[in-house]
Amino acid sequence: MAQTIQSLDRGLKILEILGKSDKPLSLNEITEYFDIDRSSIFRLLGTLIAHNFVHQDPDTKKYMLGFKIMELSGAFGEQTKIETFLRPVLKYVCEKTQQNTHLAMLHGRDVVFIAVEQPRNSLSMHISVGTREPAYATALGKVLLAFMPQTEKELLLRNTKLHKYTPKTITSVGAYKKHLEAIVHNKYAIDNEEYRPGVVCIAAPVFNHRCVVEYSIGISGSREQVCPHIDEYISVVKDAGAEASRLLGMPSQ
User: Fold this and answer.
1) What pairs with residue 113 in β-bridges?
2) What is the CATH number of the domain that holds 117?
3) Quick one: 243 exposed, middle or buried, by C-beta within 10 A (0-12, 13-18, 19+)?
4) Which residue from 225, 162, 173 is spatially nearest to 195, judged by alpha carbons?
5) Strand-by-strand arrangement of the 132-134 sheet
6) Domain co-membership, 183 together with 171
7) Is the pLDDT of residue 40 over 80?
């Protein structure tokens, strides 16, 4: 294990505490997270304030993240596109399953593919970055719909016609809502030939640092390739979703 500097560890922990809080925190509230005295925490906060990583409200004396965090966040966004950041996870899934692997996000009523990995020597259908598919009929899209805030989900479903793409497409709104509930419970979704005949897909949610699902990760392949390994592939995809969530800063459960 790499050696660490205790004071730096504590300073970084303070930033994490403030970042996860939905309101400014007092010195006492921050100190509760540590087993050291208030004066030590006060000095750590003073150092962070001096470098603009933390800001103290002059009226309430409470602490919040400083503008330096915003500056670094912007630099991170410029230097690292999310699809590049999560590329190793996609490659792992692709190598493990030998199936097309995708990272996607929701745009309106569609799911949009923002990163794609395809196994070598694959004869399967290739989906390009930027491809759009109806969210409700695909595993990647169903995961994103399932974890939407309830009011947004209800509004989207009211404005979406559940077109029957194949005999297996779910077209009953009542049945579809129950289906989404099961996805939230299981933390994965399956598209069992619901969008394309003969194609089976598995997807899992990717949570960000605020436990919000912004992306989904999954695989797609022929029924003959996927179904014999369905339990194994579900496990691989769920683990990939958990690892991608960890990389995006999702708090430990």
Assistant:
1) 104
2) 3.30.450.40
3) middle
4) 162
5) 132-134, 110-117, 100-107, 213-222, 199-207, 189-192
6) yes
7) yes
